[in-house]
Design a protein that fits this description.
The protein is mainly alpha-helical and 279 residues long. The chain is built from 12 helices and no strands.
């Protein structure tokens, strides 16, 4: 599970994204804590909006904003969608906090090993307090998903394949890869395993973003309008998926830089959030 290192065109894009990422971080450091928090919250809102769209979950900007502005930890008893948005938000915050601890302990980048228990726990959190959801349970059937084009492995071998994929994150060749390559390789194989009947895409993209954030990047937002291309690249190959990821990372950085440079950081309204990420 690795890319060759002689792909110079892609390496140029890595450098371009790294430069933009560093510029963004410098601008953010110049803002006060309130503005910085406001900006980060807008990005998480946009992530939940677009990530939900990739799996066909229709969520409005108003619904997302209401969850992000709500206080307290009570479950949304009447709305499955709102509870799922809340769980998604909480999982992103948790992942961000864990990554901060990992990076503070390592002067040189070294990704954490992904363990199957962590993956299952992520799914459990995403679907907690939601009725009729098998939170944290590996699938026992072939999923009925009309959008994904790739084939799914048999349920009887899901656990074994997921364990094998997680073990590959310990391999020296994988750990020597660039964080973007790690994110791409892990996510594509994870989606081939498709370990859960529902939520495999959300969990897989959170794992993907774990590698990116450990490498010093922000989480990547794959735009909802790229849904069809996303499905196609999962089928076509790692190079095609990497191109999709690079395109979306770069376009998000361009939009983020524009807003930070111009200090256009109004309150967390749905229109602003969606406009910021090109919705």
């Amino acid at each position: 599970m690795f890319f060759e290192f002689d792909d110079f065109d892609v390496r140029d894009r890595f450098y371009s994204i790294e430069e933009k990422n560093q510029r963004l971080n410098l601008f953010l450091e110049s803002l006060n804590l309130e503005k910085r928090h406001e900006f980060r919250n807008m990005c998480v809102c946009a992530y939940v909006y677009h990530d939900s769209a990739l799996d066909g979950m229709v969520v409005t900007g108003d619904e997302i904003s209401s969850v992000f502005s709500a206080t307290g930890h009570k479950p949304y008893v009447r709305s499955r969608v709102m509870q799922e948005v809340k769980n998604h938000r909480d999982m992103i915050y948790r992942l961000q906090a864990e990554v901060e601890k990992i990076r503070s302990m390592n002067a040189v980048y070294q990704c954490e090993i992904v363990r199957m228990d962590d993956v299952v726990d992520m799914h459990r959190i995403l679907y907690s307090n939601i009725a009729r959801k098998e939170a944290g349970k590996l699938r026992k059937a072939i999923p009925l998903h009309s959008a994904y084009f790739h084939s799914f492995i048999e349920p009887s071998v899901v656990e074994r394949h997921l364990e094998e994929l997680c073990r590959q994150t310990e391999h020296p060749e994988f750990r020597a890869q660039h964080p973007i390559n790690q994110a791409v390789l892990f996510h594509r194989q994870f989606m081939n395993v498709f370990p859960f009947l529902e939520g495999s895409g959300k969990v897989g993209r959170l794992c993907m973003n774990g590698f990116l954030m450990q490498g010093g990047y922000d989480f990547a937002i794959i735009h909802g309008s790229e849904r069809q291309r996303y499905y196609e690249t999962l089928r076509d190959g790692p190079e095609q998926f990497r191109e999709l990821l690079l395109d979306n990372m770069e376009s998000a950085l361009d939009a983020q830089l524009k807003y930070v440079v111009e200090a256009e950081l109004p309150k967390n309204s749905p229109k602003v959030v969606m406009r910021m990420m090109g919705a």
